[in-house]
């Protein structure tokens, strides 16, 4: 009898764990979807030429821009219904994962921003953007999203100094060395009191170097302003702007810091960042997602 009860308890517990797990997976999927911005003023109408141009654009073929990153600019239709688009992966993401990410993003952007003439969606490993106005080499440094860890570093002033050093370094790399991609990341340059810093910067590749620097400086000032407004320095922050983005964490989230053998993932899932890299708490939406706020 006791055994039966124990078994029952166990299985109820198992069921609860399973339920909780599926709930969490749902939450994670929502977290993935939550980093988007849709214009509220420019709407198109159902069945319009703009809509059919947009549908065509969103399913444009992707070009492999050399080694890792896939970067595709696309445009579809004629004025006044012309639509411009961009598909861009994080600079360290391999083409297969990149494509998976974009496939999810281009479907999701329509769901999250129905009937919008302008929208951007950011995933961990890629972004998709479209607009009825050409934007690819235009600077738009308005902060769209700030995501940050609720956990804080213990030496805020020193840490801000370390951050400033690393982002200066990465900005210089992205705008002088890695000019084609305007992307730079690091894994082993800066140690802070709280641990090794992992960081990246990325601009839209067609942005001029000068505008890229401006955008990244604005993004960095977003970190300062955030830490002033919450009176602490988070252990991880992502700042997302239309023209650039940056991120730092005190745990490894870059592919460069993860051996390829641990990166096998579920290839059927578009959201590769959700389903692989099981051996480290390596991304925003996995493990640490509940500690992040969206600002
Ligand atoms: C566009 O649609 C949103 C709702 O999705 C609405 O709030 C807004 O007023 C619309 N804008 C215009 C210009 O119609
Ligand atoms: C984009 O769409 C908005 C709203 O329909 C319109 O006012 C604006 O003129 C369009 N811009 C271009 C470049 O077509
Ligand atoms: C690919 O990367 C290698 C070394 O990192 C570089 O020499 C080469 O130019 C890159 N190819 C392209 C097309 O960017
Ligand atoms: C960035 O830091 C690395 C490692 O300290 C250094 O080798 C490199 O020269 C720096 N790059 C720039 C552009 O400051
Ligand atoms: C981090 O900042 C502290 C204090 O400014 C400094 O002592 C340390 O050298 C910095 N670390 C690196 C790697 O720059
Ligand atoms: C940060 O605050 C400063 C001073 O208030 C302001 O000039 C700057 O625009 C702010 N930066 C961002 C990205 O909001
Ligand atoms: C930051 O976290 C540490 C623990 O790591 C805590 O002792 C400290 O009070 C916190 N500082 C702030 C400003 O929240």
UniProtKB/TrEMBL annotation:
The keyword Transport does not apply. The keyword Ubl conjugation does not apply. Pfam families: Stress-antifung. Keywords: Repeat, Signal. Residues 1-29 form the signal peptide. InterPro entries: GNK2, GNK2_sf. Residues 32-135, 141-253 form the Gnk2-homologous domain. It comes from the Eukaryota. This is Gnk2-homologous domain-containing protein. The lineage of its organism: Eukaryota, Viridiplantae, Streptophyta, Embryophyta, Tracheophyta.
């Amino acid at each position: 009898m006791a055994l039966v009860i124990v078994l029952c308890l166990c299985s109820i517990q198992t069921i609860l764990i399973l339920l909780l797990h599926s709930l969490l997976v749902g939450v994670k999927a929502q977290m993935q979807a939550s980093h988007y911005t849709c214009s509220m003023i420019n709407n198109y109408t159902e069945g319009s030429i703009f809509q059919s141009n947009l549908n065509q654009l969103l399913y444009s073929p992707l070009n492999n821009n050399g080694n890792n990153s896939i970067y595709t600019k696309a445009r579809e239709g004629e004025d006044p219904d012309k639509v411009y688009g961009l598909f861009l992966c994080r600079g360290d993401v391999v083409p297969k994962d990149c494509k998976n990410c974009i496939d999810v993003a281009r479907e999701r952007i329509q769901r999250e921003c129905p009937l919008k003439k302008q929208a951007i969606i950011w995933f961990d490993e890629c972004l998709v953007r479209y607009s009825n106005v050409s934007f690819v080499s235009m600077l738009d440094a308005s902060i769209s999203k700030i995501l940050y860890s609720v956990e804080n570093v213990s030496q805020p002033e020193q840490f801000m100094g370390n951050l400033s050093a690393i982002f200066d370094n990465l900005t210089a790399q992205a705008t002088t060395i890695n000019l084609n991609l305007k992307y730079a990341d690091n894994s082993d340059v800066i140690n802070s009191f709280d641990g090794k810093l992992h960081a990246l910067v990325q601009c839209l590749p067609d942005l001029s170097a000068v505008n890229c620097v401006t955008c990244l400086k604005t993004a960095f000032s977003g970190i300062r302003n955030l830490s002033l407004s919450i009176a602490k320095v988070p252990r991880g922050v992502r700042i997302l702007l239309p023209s650039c983005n940056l991120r730092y964490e005190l745990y490894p989230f870059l592919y460069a810091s993860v051996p390829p053998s641990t990166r096998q993932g579920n290839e059927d899932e578009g959201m590769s960042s959700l389903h692989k890299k099981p051996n480290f708490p390596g991304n925003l939406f996995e493990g640490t997602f509940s500690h992040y706020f969206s600002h």
